[in-house]
# Entry
Amino acid sequence: MTRREQLLFCEKCTHRKMDMNQGILCGLTNEKATFTDSCSDFTEDISIQTTNQEERIIYHSDLKGNFSDKNIEKFKAEQNFSLGLILSILTGTLGAILWALITVSTKFQIGYMAIAIGAAVGFTMRYIGKGIDQKFGIAGAIIAIFSCALGNLLSIIGFIAENEGLSYFQTLIYIDYSYIPRLMKEGFRVMDLLFYGFAAYEGYRFAFRVFKNEDFVN
# Structure
């Protein structure tokens, strides 16, 4: 059986388990299906409607088991790394600005914003870039980290602007940027590493294209 044929059983089984990176796994073994004819542990989930049995999502890590080399080459031809990169940077920048505005207005840095930025960057790369190559995930992670750092930088500039009674624009012009690394270092906390790590993970994880039933080609 091919992976696709196995999934016709797994998707209707009550033991199915969804993994965001690997797709559908067996809840009994926590592994992908290995049966070649039929599964002795199969228990049909009667709550699933027949019309939805073909609907599923295939992640980039499972391409080889579901698509021919010809189809994979077709998907590669549909990739748009340049546009995905540009719009992901834009998304990350907008997220950084929003993070800074919230931080300055509340006088409190919300670390969870880093996770939201990472996810936003990743999803932008996914839907615009339609990537299956590794570089999409790497770019998503790097942009996510850069966006978080930019959010911290803009927050510092915002606090300086408030303290000095200046506008953001005036502060951007007159500030001595040689002090920025020291200010960022002084404000850095150990927890920031954790949030930056989550942002990078989501920027990487969500950056790859996912496939639904309409993408399958015989």
Observations:
- Helices lie at 3-10, 69-77, 81-106, 112-129, 134-164, 168-174, 180-187, 190-205.
- Confidence is low (pLDDT under 50) at residues 50-55.
- Residues 128 and 162 are 37 Å apart (CA to CA).
